[in-house]
Design a protein that fits this description.
alpha/beta, 2-enoyl-CoA Hydratase, Chain A, domain 1, 2 domains, four-stranded antiparallel sheet, 10 helices, 38% helix, extended
């Protein structure tokens, strides 16, 4: 081999390696409490409204020119709620980039409609056909059902066109629809290669995202609080607590048990002293100086623990791949 041939061979090898490295180059992103929004539940009116409020506050406080990162770990949900979130975030006077850890259904659509599309190496993007139902008048020619279905079909077409546009020529309407007909599942590097993401990212959290935050569930006579890490890279619950209503007010479950609190109808009724009102009508007054009793006569420790397990499982991201998606 001539010297020139050897140089050319080395140059070609270098170019191939450079191209391979550039396709899957990883960008490091540091998340802070000032620049990070998190969607770690399904799309619905309440979750979207919460995000809109947080985004507006963040936009007002963040320095000009700095982007906002929307970290996504969502199974999807309401199309309407998702479109309202897209419209709102698109109107913010700064870029809103998405970081996908798990973006399915309406989460996939949101990624395709906002700023730069980051995804972790083992992040997941998933797209599929929309699902829903319609009610209304029908018969006698064109009906309400035709009009309503037509409007939503046009919306789906618009979203498909936007997704294909973002692939920069890597996909067509035909290829995209054929791929999501049986469900399209993509890991990070696959998503970049196919044009559905821009870069694979490595994310870290600074000290402002240290600690936990609570998510409360009011279940009537008792409450469950699931503790989550403030850092969205840690997706599973890190702890769970409960509190119950007693004849001495609301009390932490552990405190209730340490003070020998009791469940059941008998405890509650044994600690009630018959009284009469001003007109002589019989009433009951809780005697607070005696035993500690759960206010709900049917409540048991097993019921509380079962509810705690259910809520922890509901928020455990490992189960997200197994729940039903609604788009």
């Amino acid at each position: 081999m001539t010297k020139i041939g050897a140089i050319m061979k080395s140059l070609i090898a270098f170019l191939i390696l450079s191209m391979s490295a550039s396709v899957f180059s990883k960008e490091t992103i540091t998340l802070t409490s000032d620049n990070t929004l998190v969607l770690d539940e399904s799309f619905r009116a309440r979750s979207v409204t919460k995000l809109q409020q947080e985004a507006a506050k963040m936009d007002a406080n963040l320095k000009s020119g700095y982007p906002i990162y929307l970290v996504m770990y969502t199974p999807g949900g309401s199309i309407q709620a998702g479109l309202e979130l897209i419209d709102f975030l698109s109107g913010i006077n700064r870029p809103v980039h998405t970081i996908t850890m798990f973006s399915a259904s309406m989460g996939f659509q949101t990624v395709q409609h906002l700023g730069k599309r980051f995804i972790t190496r083992y992040g997941v993007l998933m797209s599929h056909k929309a699902r829903g139902g319609f009610r209304g008048e029908f018969g006698g020619g064109i009906s309400q059902l035709d009009s309503r279905y037509g409007m939503w079909l046009r919306r789906i077409n618009m979203m498909d066109e936007e997704t294909v546009k973002r692939t920069n020529g890597k996909q067509t309407i035909k290829s995209y629809r054929e791929s999501y007909a049986p469900e399209l599942w993509l890991n990070g590097e696959e998503a970049v290669k196919e044009g559905y993401a821009d870069d694979v990212a490595i994310i870290s959290c600074d000290l402002s995202l240290k600690g936990t935050k609570g998510r409360d569930f009011d279940l009537g006579f008792f409450k469950v609080k699931v503790l989550m890490s403030k850092c969205p890279a840690i997706t599973a619950p890190v702890g769970i607590t409960a509190s119950i209503l007693t004849n001495q007010g609301e009390m932490d479950l552990n405190e209730f048990l340490l003070k020998n609190g009791k469940f059941g109808k008998e405890c509650f009724e044994n600690n009630v002293e018959p009284q009469k009102d001003f007109y002589g009508n019989p009433i009951q007054t809780i005697v607070k100086e005696t035993e500690i009793c759960a206010r709900d006569k049917e409540l048991t420790l097993d019921k509380i623990r079962k509810a705690m397990d259910e809520k922890e499982s509901f928020l455990n991201r490992d189960l997200r791949n197994h729940i039903e998606y609604s788009y």
